[in-house]
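Entry:
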Amino acid sequence: MKQKKSFEQIIRLIARISGSFLVVFTVVFGIATFIDSLGRNTGNPLSTLILIIFGIWGIALAGLVLALWKEGLGGFISLVSFVTMCILNFFNPDAPDSRGAIMVFLIFSLPSLLYIYYWVLTKNTSSKTK
């Protein structure tokens, strides 16, 4: 029983560390890109699809933050957002390579999958102890 608890805690810790890292990395990268774009005015407005994808990306990151407290709900919101974002990217004519988008999707969805896995493990464990 103790070994099962420690496995669950390791899954949760990996999900928390990787999810927090992805959120911080994305925010820092986004701020740096925004500051860089202020210096150069290219005059190319972003398409509506790109703005929708960025909005969904924000929801996915918010889901990862929520998963710190509510693993199941936050992991589900984040995973659904990342899947939606990946699907929308296939319709983006400006995207140079779909395979690259799939790799980014897999990397960014890993914490979401770990949160959901942890939630399922703990849900099954708590229902067996009752």
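The CA atoms of residues 32 and 94 lie 22 Å apart.
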